[in-house]
TrEMBL record:
Residues 2-59 form the HTH lysR-type domain. One of its GO terms (biological process) is regulation of DNA-templated transcription initiation. Keywords: Activator, DNA-binding, Transcription, Transcription regulation. The keyword Repeat does not apply. This is Transcriptional regulator, LysR family. Belongs to the LysR transcriptional regulatory family. One of its GO terms (molecular function) is DNA-binding transcription factor activity. InterPro entries: LysR_HTH_N (IPR000847), LysR_subst-bd (IPR005119), WH-like_DNA-bd_sf (IPR036388), WH_DNA-bd_sf (IPR036390).
Length: 301
């Protein structure tokens, strides 16, 4: 049987990155903690750490073990909370995987309706690549995955992709960059510095093909997997950057950037991926219904 004290020691070391720091938190000597870790690795039959300079790095097996450890202790905290608050209404967890290419503002907009249900839920968000999230969904460790594409048919995972909606694209830039580019859209993109989503984004290919069809040749100065980081570079004047129309107003206010132009010829699409053919989880249903209304309004504006 798994030794949960050893699991706790392992998790603390993994978070701290070093035996000495973890030993201080656990009020153990480094020698004792090192011995406990060795016993845990022997029990599992795998190495969980490898040394990199003065730090300890997780092996592939260690990353897997840490994922499970986090969930085990999270469930333990839920159990403790449930027992201590038996008189209170139970709070249903809503575990959502968010593909790392989905803009953070979009993720918030899509998930916010789940927090206003009559039956309260506790939102638990996990961000990762779509492949890893789909695997977690398949073993029911997630209730839903938010993605910018349907579940790939090449993946050996049974799931259903429910369209949430789609919207056009706005091109934003810092005021100085916008002034230099001019107001003749989309010609103002020609020769302008451009920031684009990374290759994992479903928007990457369609955006570049649209520019090519239009005969536009901006100077691509950066690719970003994280849309918030791309917006920060755009705010600093590094270049023009695309955002979904549904979040354009919010991004303009937050980053003090301006609108160079908009197009419905490029569409960014979003999906809720579930193991259910027909949605039944109340929070997933709320997300789906609110999303259709939001994207309809965004495209009409």
């Amino acid at each position: 049987m798994l030794n949960y004290k050893h699991l706790h020691y392992f998790r603390t070391v993994a978070k701290a990155g070093a035996i000495n720091r973890a030993a201080e938190k656990l009020h153990l000597t480094p020698q004792t903690l090192s011995g406990q870790l060795s016993a845990f690795e022997q029990r599992l039959g795998v190495a969980l750490f490898r040394r990199s300079g003065r730090r300890l790095e997780l092996t592939d097996a260690g990353h897997t073990a840490l994922t499970y450890a986090d969930e085990i202790f999270q469930v333990g905290a839920e159990l403790e909370d449930a027992l201590q608050n038996r008189a209170a209404a139970p709070v249903r967890p809503f575990r959502v995987g968010i593909a790392d290419v989905v803009p953070k503002a979009i993720a918030y907009q899509l998930l916010a309706p789940a927090l206003t249900l009559a039956e309260p839920v506790r939102l638990v968000c996990k961000e990762d690549r779509l492949e890893a999230l789909a695997a977690a969904l398949s073993i029911h460790r997630l209730d839903m995955v938010l993605a910018d594409r349907p579940l790939p048919s090449t993946m050996d995972v049974k799931g259903y992709s429910h369209p949430l909606g789609e919207c056009g694209i706005a091109f934003l830039a810092a005021p100085a960059v916008a002034a230099s580019a001019g107001s003749d859209f989309p010609a103002n993109l020609h020769g302008a510095p451009l920031l684009v989503p990374g290759e994992d984004s479903a928007l990457h290919g369609p955006l570049l093909r649209w520019l090519e069809r239009r005969g536009l040749q901006p100077v691509v100065v950066g690719e970003f997997d994280d849309s918030a980081l791309m917006s920060a570079f755009g705010q600093a004047g590094a270049g023009v950057f695309p955002v979904p129309l549904s979040t354009a107003g919010e991004v303009m206010r937050q980053y003090a950037v301006v609108d160079l132009g908009r197009t419905l010829e490029i569409r960014e699409r979003f999906f809720a991926i579930s193991v259910e053919r027909r949605l039944s989880h109340p929070a997933v249903v709320a997300v789906s219904e609110a999303a259709h209304q939001r994207f309809q309004h965004a495209n009409d504006d």
